[in-house]
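Work Package 3 (structural annotation) set out to generate three-dimensional models for the target panel prioritized at the project kickoff. During this period the team completed the workflow that converts sequence records into discrete structure tokens, so that structures can be stored uniformly alongside our sequence database. As a representative example, we reproduce one entry of 174 residues exactly as it appears in the project archive.
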Amino acid sequence: MTRIVVGSTNPVKVAATERVAGDLLGATVEGVAVDSGVPEQPRGRAETIAGAENRARRALAAGDADYGVGVEGGVAETDGTPGTWLIMWAAVTDGERLARGGGPSIRLPDDVARRVREGRELGPVLDDRVGTSDVGEGAGAAGVLTGGAVDRESALSHAVAGAFGPFVTDHYEG
């Protein structure tokens, strides 16, 4: 059986990977705590992707697995598009190849974006704004900001599925 290790013990990140890996590979999935190598609140696309890549490599190195998966959420500004955005990236490695996939991007409300630009982390800012605790271990910012239409697990599963693409199809060869 295929074994996958996710570079996080966050239950939402593990569940997002199980959602994809179960369908694609019939795999077993477990989470392991690893350092992302980036700040707790990644800023910008490059830093967010680097966090996902670091988590994937470190997860694979941490255990006897076929694949290491890294999932990272961050915030970024995009040239030509107003606002600050929630972004999600995943990386998958088998030790030889490394592939990446992105999830949805969701614009942050201006007051939330301002507080994040001032140096605060998105999760606690949203917890404060909507009166919750640990929003990142539940519906996540994606769920809060879409009125529940997209929750964090489904948003992250799209990033994970994109990162697994080169491993489960032959469309990337040649």
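The mean pLDDT is 93.
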